[in-house]
From TrEMBL:
GO terms for biological process: DNA repair. Belongs to the uracil-DNA glycosylase (UDG) superfamily. Type 4 (UDGa) family. This is Type-4 uracil-DNA glycosylase. Keywords: 4Fe-4S, DNA damage, DNA repair, Hydrolase, Iron, Iron-sulfur, Metal-binding. One of its GO terms (molecular function) is deaminated base DNA N-glycosylase activity. NCBIfam families: SAM_7_link_chp, UDG_fam4, UDG_fam_dom. It holds the Pfam family DUF4130. Residues 309-464 form the Uracil-DNA glycosylase-like domain. It comes from the Bacteria. The keyword Iron-sulfur applies. It comes from Lysobacter spongiicola DSM 21749.
Amino acid sequence: MHAVFLADGADLAEWRAQARALLAAAVPPDAVQWQAGAQGDLLGAGAGEGAPSPSSTGAVARVPRDFVALATLVLAHSDPRRHAVLYRLLWRITHGERALLRIATDDDVAWAERAARAVRREKHKMKAFVRFREVAGAHGPVFIAWFEPEHDVLPQVAPFFSRRFAGMRWSILTPLRSVHWDGSVLVNGPGAQRSDAPGADELENLWRTYYANIFNPARLKVGAMVREMPVRYWKNLPEAELIPGLIRRAGARMYAMVGAAPTRPRKMFPAPSVEAAAPASVGTLEALRDEVLGCRACPLWEPATQAVFGEGPADARAMVVGEQPGDQEDLHGRPFVGPAGQLFNRALAEVGIDRGTLYITNAVKHFKFTPRGKRRLHERPSAQEQAACRPWLEAELARVRPRFVLCLGATAARAVLGPGFRLMEHRGRWQPMGEGVQALATVHPSWLLRLPAGEREAAWPAFVADLAHLRDAMEQARSA
């Protein structure tokens, strides 16, 4: 029997090094006893023959990428069997069962998938239910959170918090380990106790007030709420003390809401007192952006979140023009960041165009949509709305002065090349615009997304080929 001791039972690199050594030495799974952390100290890590030295073994067979992703999740599970199950899967994969992970009914595969799902859920819950409390530090405020995860997910979730709260110093404490962020570096630490974390702070009253005001009694489903916010998390959530009272009063509040008069929603970006004038004939792109944000030339500004201006180098050699912002663009204030934008990014990467070298904008600057429940469905801008936005596009063209213009979709092509332009007749062919500027029109990426999967795959090469024309023209102009 080989006894393998892991200092950190959730560390993929440590487990992988030991597993590779065992594989190289042809040690079968039933001849290995896995021990981790305090468990190894309790059972005696020195018992048994011990694992071969990882540094003294040669290379082993490669495994599918899916196995590495699965192992990363399973190692964070709290079940002490996880190391043995993963090694058994690894052994079987490298001994003739290459497609093992596709067999969902296999006992080892099914156990590992259940463990991975549990870890994914715990990661999601940690992101949702961590509550920071402010304490005074030597160099300003520090925010500390106490959390009791069912599985060892903190190392995998900590990078999320470093991105989400990059501008503040914080620590997350758990019984197994802790992590600290100083504004630039994540530092891992040992486990902690509940008493190491601070008690309530002034922010909790604000949080409770916010939670009480967003609570919607008309949508109360206690069972669903408990599934999403399990009771075991409540003791560390400041808003949890409000939940019983909110549930008791939900019925009366709902009837009061039904009987109340409707209110007009407040806009995120209120309208200015004076309607915006036509774009200035001279000025910077930043000045033009400010003008566009105040545009009230058509009714589209009213239901939209904000105007979405173009982005990219002010001296870009090529400009990309789409139709209008979509749902995600409207929320983020940036063009081509939603599903169509992601597909466009994929096509750019395939032909070797750096998106950062392009100036990207839309013919219409506000999102036109039709509400459908919680969703906002795209609606094509009318001719009047397109005409109202045309001066902004012309002003962008005048300031950027691109050599090449790529039009995505019929609306963009007509805005650039005139109302009589027929996209499918002239797609993929350069059109002169005067003063040495050329335009190329192709379909919009959203058109591809609306196609059935099989038709989308068939249409993809033609779209990529159109973008390749832009790449070739840019390279030729650069070398001229």
